Amino acid sequence: MSFQPVVGQGGYAGWRLLQRTGDLQRSLVAREPAVARDVAYVRERLGSTGTAEALVADYRLRNAALSAFGLEDDINNRFFIRKVLESDLSDPKSLANRLGDKRYLALAQAFGFGSGAGPDQQLANEVAERHVAAELERRVGTVDGNLRLAMNAQRELAKIGDSAASDNIRWYNILGSAPLRKVIEGALGLTSDFTNFPVEKQLEQLKQRTAGMFGSGSPSVFAEPANLEKIIQRFLIRAETVSPAQSSYNAALLLLSNAGRSATGLPGYRYG
Questions:
Q1: Strand partners, 43
Q2: For residue 240, what are the CA distances in angstroms to 118, 213, 233, 247?
């Protein structure tokens, strides 16, 4: 019987429980025979996988690599993932650079097939660890979809906050990710008609609301753990004002439908 995550009643109280027990719960997932076998396989094989073709041909490696980058829904899209991995990242028109969802770019950058480098043992170890963390997140999502959104936001917003990209690019990357967008919109109290605004107006609203909360409208504020916690707290508390079952159901649908392959991510904007 597989380990079922403990989140209490869910919501923000469940989030606080996860923060206290996350390391222990992750270790329990990692000890399961099936997960442990996958981790050992990744550590042994991934670092010596020389081509994107070989990687996508190996189901266990493909599954671990995709789950490590939050792209597990693409497990059966072998040709697409191979083309992402083989993208020439020095070419702004290459597939990985054009996709609105920048998780694909991060995948291509990490594996380095496009530059002829390929994965090494350090990456194999990182993918193995992230695969375990992703498995815990997936299981949390079966109990409370909003908690899975929060776990994803904690990781991904911190990366965006630390990014050297311009503020506008970082905001567009957030808007281009359905799970991150859901968390930010909820935390900032944006109404349902927000998505009907022109993208420039959406950007303006995000900056204004963020500045009102943190004193700065730059996504750099998400690099601060205290600010990130405030965002997650507000998202989860506001989500609880909706019917808990409906809120979690909507969150699950959002995670499942986030294919994110638009070459622009948002109407009228081309990512650079």
A1: none
A2: 44, 21, 11, 8
34: Cβ contacts below 8 Å, ≥ 6 apart: 2
**Which residue type does 239 have?**
A
Q: What is the mean pLDDT of residues 129-145?
A: 94
Residues 117 and 50: beta-carbon distance below 8 Å: no
Q: Could you please report the per-residue DSSP string of the chain? A: -PPPP--TT-HHHHHHHHHHHHHHHHHHHHHSHHHHHHHHHHHHHGGG---HHHHHHSHHHHHHHHHHTT-GGGTT-HHHHHHHHT--TTSTTSHHHH-SSTHHHHHHHHH-GGGT----HHHHHHHHHHHHHHHHHHHHHHH-HHHHHHHHHHHHHHHHHH--S-HHHHHHHHHT-HHHHHHHHHHTT--GGGGGS-HHHHHHHHHHHHHHHHS--SGGGGGSHHHHHHHHHHHHHHHTTS-HHHHHHHHHHHHHT-----SSSBTTB---
Q: Residues 31, 37: contact at Cβ < 8 Å? A: no
Phi, psi of 264 (to 5 degrees): -115, -25
What is the per-residue pLDDT across 204-256, written as a single tens digit (0 to 9) for each? 999 999 999 999 999 999 999 999 999 999 999 999 887 555 555 455 555 54
Residue 78 pLDDT exceeds 90: yes
Query: Phi/psi at 76 (nearest 5 deg)?
Result: -95, 0
Contact criterion met (CB below 8 Å) for 34 and 76: no
Q: Is the pTM of this model over 0.85?
A: no
Question: pLDDT tens-digit profile of 41-61?
Answer: 999 999 999 999 999 999 999
What residues does 266 pair with on adjacent strands? 269
